[in-house]
């Protein structure tokens, strides 16, 4: 009876009957988004589901008396690259609201172990998901966990991701590979080779890490293509290594969350603490300015 369960195949009675203290719910959140001329729009969802599946397999054998309740992927994210047909855009605030309301529902079912696989690197997206988790955790005690923001900031957080040798070497040689380049193309060759187009003929698009902060500049550099990096350097064997490495990272992070031991370091993107990247920054700023204005008016009138 134990192990993986797909929510779409259960009745409400079966959800009700699950031993809630031993139930873990997993949901992948990712955009439908252009990935160049050689990869399909669903890359981030396909990757997220692959990592989730590999993670669940590992968890089932480590926690044999737990249930792992798998949701369908939610195609909701913030921060698509450019204005391409096929991109499905949501504001950072919408993402926060949808995640928060989803978490509210899961908690309402009685579940206290919720794992979000937010398989899209945009920092504002990661922050919105983490804000929703934080809010739920404050209200109900720790029950929601989103470990990919920390993964995407491994350098700044000094997390040792134990990259396999092939990947470490390639990262050193071609570090600026942010979207549909050799990293994602390799992963897709491993997961669904039949969906990968002619990656060997795609030109390199050179965007430095610092330039990623300026979307207009990036759009100009990748116009007509859509990828950022070097798809022609992709390799299927490397993709297997990268996907395995991701599953291992998730396994370590989620195990620490289920054990409630040492999970804190995986909870936030390194930019989480920067106020202007937060969802309600403008609203809070406007309220603060209005407050100061009101105070000054009172002082002036006195
Ligand atoms: Zn992607």
What is the third-level CATH name, the topology? Rossmann fold
In total, the number of domains comes to: 1
- Distinct ligands: zinc ion
Overall 3D geometry?
globular
Strand/helix succession = EHEHEHEHEHHHHHHH
Derived structural class: alpha/beta
Helical percent range?
Answer: 40-55%
Question: How many DSSP-defined strands?
Answer: 5
Query: What would you say the CATH architecture is?
Result: 3-Layer(aba) Sandwich
Describe the model:
- This protein has one domain (3-277): Rossmann fold, CATH 3.40.50.10310.
- Helix content is 47%, strand content 7%.
- Strands 1-3-2-4-5 form a five-stranded parallel sheet, sandwiched between helices.
- It has 302 residues and is of the alpha/beta class.
- It binds zinc ion.
- Zinc ion (ZN) binds next to helix 2.
Structure characteristics:
302 residues; alpha/beta; Rossmann fold; 5-stranded parallel β-sheet; 11 helices; 7% strand; binds zinc ion
Report a brief summary of the structure.
The chain has 302 residues and is an alpha/beta fold. 47% of the residues lie in helices and 7% in strands.
């Amino acid at each position: 009876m134990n192990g993986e369960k797909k929510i779409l195949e259960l009745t409400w009675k079966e959800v009700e009957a699950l031993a809630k203290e031993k139930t873990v719910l997993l949901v992948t959140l990712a955009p439908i988004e252009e990935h160049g001329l050689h990869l399909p729009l669903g890359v981030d969802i396909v990757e997220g589901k692959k990592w989730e599946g590999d993670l669940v397999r590992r968890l089932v054998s480590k926690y044999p008396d737990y249930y792992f309740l798998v949701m369908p992927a939610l195609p909701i994210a913030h921060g698509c690259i450019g204005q391409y047909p096929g991109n499905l855009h949501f504001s950072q605030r919408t993402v926060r609201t949808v995640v928060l309301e989803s978490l509210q529902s899961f908690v309402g079912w009685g579940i206290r172990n919720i794992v979000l696989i937010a398989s899209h690197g945009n920092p504002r997206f990661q922050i919105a998901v983490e804000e929703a988790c934080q809010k739920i955790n404050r209200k109900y005690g720790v029950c929601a966990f989103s470990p990919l923001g920390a993964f995407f900031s491994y350098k700044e957080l000094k997390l040792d991701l134990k990259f396999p040798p092939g990947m470490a070497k390639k990262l050193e040689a071609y570090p600026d590979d942010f979207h549909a380049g050799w990293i994602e193309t390799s992963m897709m060759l491993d997961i669904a080779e039949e969906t990968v187009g002619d990656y060997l003929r795609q030109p390199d698009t050179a965007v430095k890490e610092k330039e990623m902060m300026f979307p207009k500049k990036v759009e100009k550099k990748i116009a007509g293509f859509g990828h950022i990096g070097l798809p022609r350097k992709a390799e299927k064997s490397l993709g297997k290594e990268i996907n395995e490495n991701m599953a291992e990272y998730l396994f370590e992070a989620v195990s620490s969350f289920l054990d409630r031991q040492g999970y804190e370091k995986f909870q936030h993107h390194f930019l989480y603490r920067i106020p202007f990247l937060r969802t309600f920054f403008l609203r809070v700023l406007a309220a603060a300015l209005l407050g100061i204005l009101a105070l000054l008016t009172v002082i002036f009138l006195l």
